[in-house]
Amino acid sequence: MLQILTLMVTIQLESCGHEPEAAGPKYYPMKAGLGTEYFRILLQSNCGVSVLDFTPRAEGESPHICLDRLNQTPNSPVAAGNSGGRKTCKRIILVCNGSTQVDSEANFTYSVDQPMNMLGMIQSQKTAELLLDLKLSSIVSCPENACIETAKAISRVQEAADCLGADCVPRYVEMKQIDDLDIENILKKSKKDKLEVEPFQPGWLTRLEDEVLSKLWNQSAKAWQSLLTELSDESEPEKIVVVVGHPAVHIALMGHCLYLSKEWMGSFHLDAGSISIIDFPDGPSSGGIIRCINYTVHLGRWSIPITRSTVDDEEF
Fold first, then answer.
1. Which of 309, 289, 306 is nearest to 297 (CA)?
2. In-domain check, residue 80
3. Which CATH number goes with the domain that contains 168?
4. Is residue 97 part of a domain?
5. Among 131-140, 205-214, 268-277, which stretch is predicted with the lowest mean pLDDT?
6. Is the model's pLDDT at 140 over the cut of 80?
7. Is residue 193 part of a domain?
8. Transmembrane region positions (predicted)?
9. How many domains does the chain have?
């Protein structure tokens, strides 16, 4: 197994004994190879933790760099409604479906058309609890089992907002499905086996065939446009759209948000049960600001640690 070197970039001005700068979040391209134009698009808050994974490659080649996490803050990322000091009325929350039976067994690696296992159910419930802090406008999901189950879990908790003390009335959230979020058949076309491409490891998407990656990228572009159209509904001045899907399609959606090419898909990483947030303080037509990527703090003991030990348990 290749060793992963993890670098945490943390902004902690007050704890370091320095006077804090002007209040408000900062934006960083995270040294992931992105240009300075991304300073205002990738958000980094004070005391937020962001993680870069460096995976060694063949001798003489530079390591593969992957943004594992962006802006993991001590407080809930959904509690704040501002981006760069400006109130945002439009937001997309990307929710990765909970773990499925296929994730934990040696079956077809990429399938999401499976029911969630017990871990996945817990992850979905934890995500639903986190999103209870928000009044959701709609939940859009991929038409596959694990995604639909995750979407229903979120909807049930929203509907019980009055019983849970989060609202004075139940919240009935519109649920939709977008076929372009379904990438199951695309991933099945890959001839790579689990030994060649180990899913959900940093940079795994770049090891897929170019044809497979291109189809995934092109289909996700249609899904992205559908989501922007959904968000642009002028009948609702404030709109929060939750999108439930496979980590691969969410990575592609973030790539389209950042106006990147498909070659950048290996530069981002998402775990099952994670959320990523895109704010649109100037409206959907003006581009989004990514508030956080691969946020998993809400999963508690069932989250994947930010730093992964390379020492065997027996040595502790």
1. 306
2. no
3. 3.40.50.1240
4. yes
5. 205-214
6. yes
7. yes
8. none
9. 1
27 inside domain: no
d(CA 24, CA 123) in angstroms, rounded, equals: 31
Residue with tokens 């005391």: 47
In this structure, the chain runs to a length of 316
Token pair 């080649």 is found at 61
Per the structure block, which two tokens stand in for 261? 């090419």
Closest by alpha carbon to 49, among 309, 307, 308?
Answer: 307
Core vs surface per residue 204-230: b (16+ CB within 10 A) or e: bbbebeeebbebbbebbbebbebbbeb
Q: pLDDT digits over 57-90, tens only?
A: 777 778 888 899 998 888 888 875 454 446 788 9
Q: Write the CA distances from 172 to 131, 152, 165, 213, 234, integer angstroms.
A: 14, 12, 15, 37, 20
pLDDT the model gives residue 30: 44
Token pair listed for 232: 């642009």
Q: Which domain holds residue 120?
A: 86-315
Q: H or E stretch including 84? A: none
Neighbours of 192 (CB within 10 A): 17
Nearest to 205 by CA among 269, 109, 141, 114: 269
Average pLDDT over every residue of 192-212? 73
Which pLDDT does position 196 carry in this prediction? 55
* Beta bridge partners of residue 277, listed in sequence order: 93, 292
Distance (Å, whole) CA 53 – CA 31: 11
pTM of the model: 0.84
* φ/ψ of residue 22, rounded to 5: -50, 140
